[in-house]
Every structure is written in C-alpha cells, then in structure tokens.
Amino acid sequence: MEAYSERYEAALVLAARTHRNHTRKAGDVPYIVHLAHVSIILIRHGFGEDVAIAGLLHDAVEDQGLPLEEIEAGFGPAVAAMVSALTERKHENGVERPWETRKREVLHQLERAGVDAVAVKAADTLHTVRSLLAGLAERGPAHWSQFSRGPDQSLWFYERVAEIVRERLGAHPLADELDRAVDALEEVILSGEGR
Known about the structure:
By secondary structure, the protein is mostly helical. It is 69% helix and 2% strand. It is built from ten helices and two strands. Strands 1-2 form a two-stranded antiparallel sheet. The longest helix is centred in the middle third of the chain and has 25 residues, at 115-139. It starts with 5 loop residues before the first helix and ends with a helix.
C-alpha cells in the first residue's frame, strides 16, 4: 500500500461524512476517531488497502444505514463483503433486538467470516477495549453507565471475540495485541477497580 491513495482518501471522506453526527458512547469524541484508529491498527499490522478501507467503513451500514451497495460500488466486492460480515442487525420490525441475541449472532458471523474480516473485527475490538480501559482509568466504574452492558457481559463478549480471532489468525501479532488488551480489562474488572 502506497503512502497516499485516492481510494483510501475517498473511504476516509465517506466515513467522516457518514458518521459526521455520531460520537463515541462515552463522551463527545467524534466517531471518526474510532474508525481511523481501527484502520491505522490494520495498516500498522501490515494489512492491505481493502482491509484498511473496511476498517474505516465497518460501522457505516450498521450504525448509519449506509447502503452496502454504495460501499461495493465505491470500493469493490471484497470491502463490501468484509463490512457485511461485520454488520450487526440491531433492529427487527422497528424494534431493538436483545443485546445477547445480537452479540451471539456477531460471534457466529465472525466464526464464518473471511480472515480479513476477522482482522477488522480484531482491530475494532482492540481499539474499543483500549478506549474502555482509558475511560475506566479516568472515570472509574461510573464509566460503565455509558454502555449497554456492564463489566461481566462486556468482558464475556470481548474474551469470546479474542478467542475467535486467535483461532482464525493464529500467532498473528494483532491477535497477541488483542489478547493483551482483553487480559488487561479482565485484570481491572477482577481487581474491583473496573466494577
């Protein structure tokens, strides 16, 4: 991947515009910060442009309703397939689906996703867990009030994602980094500081 790419820039612009009114759960940080970090993590771990672009766009369909066809038209079927594999179905018939059901489906999808999509989910989870750790360090257990679930259920989900990533990516350094982050979260929770 070259240092500059018009295609990557187009994906970054699309992500920024699509998520322009979207902030992270725990504060007023623009959501594009998360997407940029996911993409940067993937680039730093040596993944190619399609994977880095999927990192930028992985939440566009799920959170903002961007048509998957628009992603495919702009960035090709490989990027669209990765985004599709990582898209959670949050609502059914206008009603929010239960968190547990959605997360089990995400895990099921991840077990069957291509390796590149698994890498995007690993980078996504890595940044989410690192952000969560920073929030807990700053605000303590009150930080959990910003999330759908508390420490035990959240840790269960992140541990399961890390297990699947390890199974699918093997000894890849991204899997190692994710394991370390999830272990650090478990330590904070079990110590009582994150509960």
